[in-house]
Write a structure and sequence with these properties.
The chain has 334 residues and is α/β, with parallel strands linked by helices. 51% of the residues lie in helices and 13% in strands. Helix 7 (179-201) runs antiparallel to helix 8, helix 7 (179-201) runs parallel beside helix 10 (253-264) and helix 7 crosses helix 12 (279-294). The model has no long low-confidence stretch (mean pLDDT 96).
């Protein structure tokens, strides 16, 4: 099969190599000429990796490479996704499986990202939309280290196609039909990863992080159930799995954003100077606004929002979380 990957960032490159290792024809598209040249000519993407990229992965700045693809994978930041979808949809000539790998929400409409793709790509041009998501860092996948994800879609046949296209001895793909739960889980865990980074940055230890992740999972589940998700999804790869890897790793941009904020004692410098895509910053705003509208108790998200957008001191945010009214821990707290 021909798989066209839109975006030449770290995750798109790593997934391109996985697909190429499995014998698929892989063509990447990007707007950064240096990255495209590095992949196509030098078989590297030095903007992100020291490791080489498979020679079977090709790259171009011409979006027309999408025309004869069987699978189109969107690997661009959430903020750029709508524009790229619009351009791609105009060039798709036959029904294709569309893959989303971003973890977040539309910044204006607050839609889940598979919904954005479905809204913008006409039905006659898509077989299905599948989200390929779960606990993963591109820095490890490019080295062919063991990784396990989910192909998430209500169209199980298309999910099986993606499962076969990407699964191999180091990259295993499961299937999941709870699109709401999975996409909500992988977006919300980025907010918790910022909180985890803040805790680490101000000098807190493993006890604090364990508590944060546990209560964060309860918060993620509570929000997801309100949207129509299944509780068990949050105990799987797209819930607790992604939460663990993002809250504990220096590969995580969200964790490292929080760490810098914690070190500085304020989000001001980070919000002013950051040039990297940190999806949790945008997801936090969406979740905060939606939870207020829907009356969902989201104490961790609310405190992260206050630190990011209202100038709250991180130490005070933690004190306010620790000083909340006492209660029993029960399953109903979900």
């Amino acid at each position: 099969m021909k798989i066209c990957i839109l975006g030449t960032g770290s995750w798109g490159t790593a997934l391109g190599q996985v697909a190429a290792d499995n014998g698929n024809e892989v063509m990447m598209w990007g707007i950064n000429e240096d990255q495209v040249h590095d992949i196509e000519v030098n078989h590297h993407n030095r903007a992100f990796f020291e490791a080489p990229v498979s020679e079977k992965v090709h790259a171009s700045t011409d979006l027309h490479v999408i025309k004869d693809a069987d699978i189109v994978l969107f690997a661009v930041p959430t903020m750029a996704l709508e524009d790229v979808i619009d351009k791609a949809a105009a060039l798709i000539e036959k029904p294709v499986i569309l893959i989303n790998v971003a973890k977040g929400f539309h910044p204006v409409t607050h839609e889940r990202l598979s919904c954005v793709i479905e809204r913008l790509v006409p039905k006659e041009k898509r077989t299905a939309v599948v989200s390929l998501i779960g606990p993963s860092h591109a820095e490890e996948v490019i080295l062919r280290q063991l990784t396990v994800l989910n192909a998430v879609s209500q169209d199980e046949k298309s999910a099986e196609v993606i499962q076969r296209a990407f699964s191999n001895e180091y990259f295993r793909v499961y299937r999941n039909t709870d699109v709401i739960g999975a996409e909500t889980g992988v977006a919300l865990k980025n907010v918790m990863a910022i909180a985890s980074g803040i805790l680490t940055g101000i000098g807190q230890g493993d006890n604090a992080r364990a508590a944060l992740m546990t209560r964060g999972l309860a918060e993620m589940t509570r929000y997801g159930l309100k949207q129509g998700a299944k509780a068990e999804t949050f105990l799987g790869l797209d819930g607790v799995g992604d939460l663990i890897v993002t809250c504990t790793s220096k590969h995580s941009r969200n964790f490292m954003a929080g760490w810098q904020i914690g070190q500085d004692g304020s989000a001001e410098r980070f919000m002013k100077e950051n040039k990297k895509t940190v999806e949790g910053i945008y997801a936090c705003k969406v979740i905060h606004e939606e939870s207020l509208k829907q009356g969902i108790d989201m104490p961790i998200t609310n405190e992260v929002y206050a630190v990011l957008y209202e100038g709250k001191d991180p130490d005070q945010a933690i004190k306010d979380l620790m000083g909340r009214s006492l209660k029993a821990e029960t399953n109903i707290s979900f």
